[in-house]
Amino acid sequence: MRVMSLDVFLFHFGLAIVMFFVVNWLGKRSIPLGYIHLSVFAREDPAPAFNFTFRVLAPVVFLLLVSVALYAIHLDRFVGNIFLVVFYYFGIRLLFNAFSERWRLLNWMSWGPQIIVTVALSWLSYSYLIKNRSILFPNLDTIGKELWLAIAVFLYALLNRVRLAGKGTEQRKRAYLRHRYTKFERRYGSVVRKHTSNCKLEALVFAVMILEAFNRPKLYRLIERMLFPLGRAKSLGIMQVKARENISDLESVDLGTAKIVSDHVKALAELKIGLEEDRLRGIRDIIWDIRDPESFAHRLEDRVIHQTLVKYNYSGDYAREIEDLHRIILKEFYPHCKDSLLGDILSQIQPIKKT
């Protein structure tokens, strides 16, 4: 076998990096079709056939299109052994998840078959299609397989109606959250509790911390610190706070916790004003039903949490994700927490019975 030249290897490795970003980009834009991406939340796979097919075929189609383009511009030498790009691609993906500390979320029972099938299809495509450029380009004489195409579409649609059990996914998410919470609580717990003794507010800080760390892994944060002096990064550290100078993760947690506590106080003040105005106007959907004060208190806490999070990050989707994560963390790690996030609001509201 001929030894690959350095320029060809570098070109193929560069293609693998491009493939990594292209597949991720396409995946994010295929969510309405059923694509399910890696997340800290346990979700049922809504379209297992689509997800498996997408993850397997996207790299293969990418190789075919790139090969056609290389042939078209007479760079045939870079087509040789191009199937190796898939090996590099999976290596990059595995390393990315390892460095991002997301490997606990990976479903290896699904990943194994995906890698095997993708590599096999890539090699077969290279051996029987790509190497023979005469049959790689579209040819009207070969478009006679409509029946097999229809059968494939039928099987795809049939398999896509299958729903995979979410028990394994649930266990992986729980294991990931336990690992992250334990690690962060041990490392930053004293800093968080310096700002608040309220267990619900403490859980909210850790919910923000876990999601921010998931969205901005350690490698990303390192790059952001390098770009910060150039003005190319605005938020820093594990809590992604805005800073005027380069800060560490520990300083980020200190600033981030202080901001959440401050935002909570502001959200409480706004809620007091809003409730009094609504009470005076007689808006019935927020008036305290004295027959169910506990339910009313829960609804008010949800409003306070949402407004606190919106102040931290204006995205509504971000707030809803944190709210879901906060409930899980409270149930998992603070089962005996009885603190309230409402301060003295309930004692100051004049209850009005619904008519």
Q: Describe the global form.
A: elongated
**Radius of gyration from the alpha-carbon trace, in angstroms:** 26 Å
The counted number of beta strands is 2
Q: State the helix count.
A: 13
Short structural description:
The protein has 2 domains: 6-164, no CATH class; 171-348. It has 13 helices and 2 strands; from the N terminus they run αααααααααββαααα.
Describe the structure.
- Mean pLDDT is 78; it is low at 30-39 and 41-46.
- The chain has a two-stranded antiparallel ribbon with strand order 1-2.
- It has helices spanning 6-28, 48-72, 84-99, 108-130, 133-136, 146-159, 167-195, 199-215, 218-227, 249-281, 293-312, 316-333, 345-348; strands at residues 235-236, 241-242.
- The chain has 355 residues and is mainly α.
- The protein folds into two domains: 6-164, no CATH class; 171-348.
- Helix content is 66%, strand content 1%.
- It has 13 helices and two strands; from the N terminus they run αααααααααββαααα.
- A hairpin with a 4-residue loop joins strand 1 (235-236) and strand 2.
- Helix 11 (293-312) crosses helix 12 (316-333).
Q: What distinguishing features does this structure have?
A:
mainly alpha, 2 domains, two-stranded antiparallel sheet
Show the helix and strand layout:
Layout: H1 6-28, H2 48-72, H3 84-99, H4 108-130, H5 133-136, H6 146-159, H7 167-195, H8 199-215, H9 218-227, E1 235-236, E2 241-242, H10 249-281, H11 293-312, H12 316-333, H13 345-348
Antiparallel strand pairs: 1-2
Helix pairs in contact: 1-3, 2-4, 3-4, 7-8, 7-10, 8-10, 8-12, 10-11, 11-12
